[in-house]
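FORM 7B: Structural annotation worksheet

SECTION A. Query
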Amino acid sequence: MAQSSVLSMARTWKFWKEMLTITVAMFIAAAAVYYFLMPSKLVIGSISGLSIVLSGIFANMGIVVKVSTIVLIINAILLVLAYFLIGSEFGVKTAYSALVLGPMIDIWEKICPYERLLEEGTTSVMGDHWFDLLAFVLILSASQALLFRINASTGGLDILAKIVNKYLHFDIGMSVTIAGVIICCTAFFINPFRLVVIGLIGTWINGLVVDYFTMSLNKRKRVCIISEDYENIRNYIVHTIVRGCSLYEVTGGYTGKKTMEIQSLLTNEEFAALMKYIRENDIKAFITAGNVSEVYGIWSEHKKQRHLKKKSE
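SECTION B. Predicted structure
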């Protein structure tokens, strides 16, 4: 059944467009790892950071193992654990993004080895570990934002955090922090105390930046409208914008007059379109709007797109 679902997804243009987006995002993430983490040996709370530690430990033992190879192996193990511990619905997109990171690091190495960018006697592309840290966090967060926009993830630490969340019952944000801090502390095996502290600060900053992007991308407008012309507004929201809404009977505290209040959750673009409709049709209304950072339940972009497609045919 899962196989038939994957095959049906693969037949759509949307699926391949999202796979292309994931490829671009992971290529950006691989560049951040290769040019800013690997030369300086900074260990941020991620699977890439853990891979750098393990590669260093193996090197001290006289065994040469590429960071990209370790990334690939760890992600493969985590995907298997996720299948059995979280469930088979984990998704094709996460599996793909997790498994391509290692090979993409190798591609960057072939395109432009970071040794060419280092000044003699330094281990930092930017010339300072703090600048490496900031560059890594910003570039990685940009790639994560691209993935979150299409409901995908980079795998790795996200998988580990979900396992912690399910079995230890921590919030997902706390789960990410716990997993990241544990990984950062493994850097004591290869790095001095100063670099470990930088890694811990980087993990914290990365969490803040990702939270900012996530809230920005998930932000919706909760709109409340009181108007005698509520039926026209309701029709516009339901049939033109193609969103649901709720109607409540309200009584004006000043006039004592009964009327209807419409409440709806809209994107910023949909809210702008609604306000334009109200202005152009000279509808008298009292409107309040606030930001909502998370929406759960039956909010569905796919359903809206299908409805709009049928309407245009």
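SECTION C. Observations
The longest helix spans residues 193-218. Strands lie at 220-227, 246-251, 258-266, 286-292.

SECTION D. Sign-off
Analyst initials: ____
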